[in-house]
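URGENT: need a sanity check before tomorrow's submission.

F., can you look over the Leucine-binding protein domain-containing protein record below? I want to be sure the sequence and structure line up before it goes out.
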Amino acid sequence: MKSVFVLMAFLFVTSCSGVSMITPERKVADNVDTSKLYHQDFLQKINAAKEKVRQGKNDLALKDVAAIKEEKLSNAEKATKRNLTGVINFSQKRYEAAAKSFEEASALAKDDPALDAQIYLNLGSAYYKMNQNEKALNTLSQANYKNLQDTEAKKFHQLYALLSQQLGKKEQSLSALIRSLEDKKSISELTTDPRYGQVEEQFKKLSSSERVRLLEEFDQDKNLSVAYLAYKEAETAFREGDQDKVKDFSEWIEKRYGSNTEIMGLVASLGARNQNNTAKIDLRYIGVALPLSGDLKGLGERALAGIDVALEEMSQDPNKKYRLEIKDTKGNPANGAFAVKDLIETNNVAAVIGGLTTAEATKEYLEAKKYGVVFISLSKVLLPKEEKNHLLIEIPGSIESQVNTLFSERMLAKIGKRPAIMYPKTDIGEAYANEFWRQSKKYNLDVTGLISFDPNQTDYRDPVKNILGIKFNREREEELAIVNDIAHLESKKSIKRVQNLQPQIDFDWVFVPALPREVVQLLPNYNYFDAFNLNYVGVPSWRSELMVNEGYRYGNVYFMDEPISGTETPFTQKFFQKFKKQPNIVETIAYDSLRILFDVIEADSSYQTRQDLDLALIKKENLKSESGSWKLSDDIWMKDMSTFRIKREGIEAVVN
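Structure tokens as predicted:
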């Protein structure tokens, strides 16, 4: 863990830049006027020394600082002079000399609260580097971190957390870690930070009363991690059936974070589950929302055919009679959302099957979520991971499931750990890009390219040039001049070049979540710009005749999809007997939707309420049906996916 705080070695970057050390973005120190503490000629000399530090002329900078006479300096100026001396020595790993300068500076800096806080942080950092941890922690304890700039305050909290942990002060360490996350603005940004994982792990080890006391410690703070921890406590109380506790935590959150729409959305959803799900209902009464008229009527009827086969299987036991309430969405997302609302409020169904298209799926799930009702989606739901929970089961591999497979250890070992992405400027393309970015941060991978393209265009050279670093000639001006000279000489030999600059390939693979018709126009441009034999990874739609015929030509082409069995199953047999044709993907996922509900509902004969169904899904370790299996991970259902490679001979499974 010590390596996490190696950034302390770079504290001089802030302290030695411009005059920010003297006039920082003040907080508590806002009302302190420091303009009379510093003379202009002194600031000029200090800034000149800092400029030499930036140029790597540290010894010259030290001499210049030492040459500043102190007879007419204010205490704040004397402190600034010693602090800069300490910072330069610290950057050169002369920690004892740095500590001595910081100690002298700390006795002189009281007139400038921001400088005073910065010096204590610098001194504590020096003691830490000298392995004097107890002394370092005591020093940090004397600093008012609220007077630090945000970047410096984060360093302060990280170092304070590390030192507290090493000295066995666990609650102090946890508090400091939480404060180091106070700049996070979204749950996605928060949960992908490795420090939040440490916070949650340590928080769970506390007793119930200790957790409450810790939350109250931040009563006056606006720290998203505190709100999210409180929400997690409310969710735990819900699972334990403690409705009063759910209400108490929810009210605490609303009072302090009522303006945070993301947190309040979670609280509202939990509130609906807590208040409306305790009434006894017929759990075998299932709602279905499908397009049964309009352009998508054919697809809707095919989905109903799959559901019909599942219903016949489930009705063989006379004691387990399932009923379906079917609503026509007409293929319109707004109609779909209204249909879900009607199924829940009017018909009081236990769960809803729907979302045959991604547009319908998203709207319908959001409506079901308001009531805390299980929603089985026949398409991907285009929402951030943080807006999903275990009450959503996406029968096709969700975007999270696909990207999770993409970032698996086995896959990264095969194709490398330097990813890039080219995605279409569409709702689904952006959903893939957001999850790709979230997962890359989670696994601490550097994304070397994040490029979007217009799927309606026919010329994809510009986005490819962009990711290959050959679009912006200005940044590579010197190289371009040399290459142009060579090209001029070659032109006399009648040799024609495709392009001047060679591609800069700083990635191991490119994720392209696009349709096959877009991909076969996009990938040839890499070869056109001399970027041969690259690794490309795609999505389930790449299992197509077009990609099989063309994909292998462009390099190493992979895609993620569900493992498809070539053998006959009881479902395919029954479907053929009933409809005299083989089922396709729509019929299969629709069949799965009802079969999964059946397995959950019939797992315990004592289930009587939606809350019983809710908690049953939480306790389920996995789900399994015709098209695959799912595991509950971080409160969302992740489908097991496989990776395939497109070769000249056809499609080959490479990672199972």
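My own read: The chain has four domains: 2-180, 225-276, 285-396+568-620, 401-468+503-561. Residues 225-276 form one domain. If you see anything odd, call me.
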